[in-house]
Amino acid sequence: MSTRELIERWVSLFNAGDAEGIAGLYAEDAVNHQIPLAPVVGRRAIADFHRDTFAGGPLTCTPLNLVVDDDWAALEWTDPDGFRGCGFFQVQDGVIVLQRGYWDGAQLARAHPDVHPG
Hints:
6 strands; alpha+beta; about 30% helix; 4 helices; about 35% strand; SnoaL-like; six-stranded mixed β-sheet; NTF2-like_dom_sf; Nuclear Transport Factor 2, Chain: A
């Protein structure tokens, strides 16, 4: 799977609320650092993070831009409530090894008061 296909798959699984499916896209020792929060390390912890995030209700990631350069992808996104952010993904050997996300926690609280990531 190419880097682009992998990130498109990530978006699909995110929109389905599939924490286990998303975790399967990461390396066993991957790091997911949503910058307002502490880094999450390891596939199991990444599954737990997404499970906790999805517990507040369904979320939608609508890509605005997806820029891919070899093993790096930058995803700018929004949701139907106007919550916006961006993520950077490093892919090696067909799995995500590093993800960094940037978004505004105050904006998240206004758009989705029941969602408490991390």
